[in-house]
Write a structure and sequence with these properties.
- It is a single chain.
- Helices cover about 80% and strands about 0% of the residues.
- The protein is mostly helical.
- Helix 6 packs antiparallel against helix 9 and helix 7 packs across helix 9.
- The two termini are about 65 Å apart.
């Protein structure tokens, strides 16, 4: 290893291209601290710098067969700078997205198309409820609109709670079957 410390960058790059792991280790040892200090001046977040440098050296190893134009140090410093710029660009995109999403959430009124779809859907639901058999419709409306329990409905209509449960269950099955395709089409 001591022998590799005497090699120039160009010699280390030649060895690196041949897959020499000791040459790679020497490049890493030689430049990691310098690149860290360089990056810290521009991005003072230690964990992000460590990630950037790890990605850089992984990329250096994986692309070791490529031809370096210029000096290794220039390549490494430029790569760090570009990766830092990518971090800032990604943060800006994330910030813009969050701002846009918050603005959307704070929007008090739904858009016109959504209002129209909801009204059409309400009409369809009311039509399908009206098409239910009389007793089933009455039980369903007491359950969903009046918010009565099955026991309260049973007492009010003088039927068993089991019948009420069955009527509500059947009405929901009918409505799901008839309105299922409408829900799918309305919310696309």
């Amino acid at each position: 290893m001591a022998l590799y410390r005497k090699y120039t960058d160009q010699q280390l790059v030649i060895l690196l291209r041949g897959g020499d792991t000791v040459a790679f280790t020497e490049i890493h040892s030689r430049y990691y601290g310098l690149l860290y200090a360089h990056a810290y001046k521009r991005l003072p977040v230690r964990e992000e710098i460590k990630d950037i440098l790890q990605e850089l050296f992984i990329s250096l190893w994986n692309n070791r067969a490529q031809n370096f134009t210029g000096y290794l140090s220039g390549y490494l410093y430029t790569s760090v700078r570009n990766r830092i710029l990518n971090v800032y660009k990604h943060k800006k995109i994330r910030s813009d997205y969050i701002s846009s999403f918050q603005e959307f959430l704070l929007q008090a009124e739904p858009i016109a198309d959504e209002i129209l779809r909801v009204k059409e859907l309400e009409v369809l639901i009311e039509q399908e409820i009206a098409a239910l058999p009389a007793q089933m419709r009455q039980v369903f409306e007491l359950s969903r609109n009046a918010h009565l329990s099955h026991q309260e409905i049973a007492e009010k209509l003088n039927i068993s709670p089991l019948t009420v449960k069955k009527q509500v269950s059947n009405s929901l099955k009918i409505l799901r079957a008839k309105l299922g395709s409408y829900f799918y089409n309305f919310f696309l």
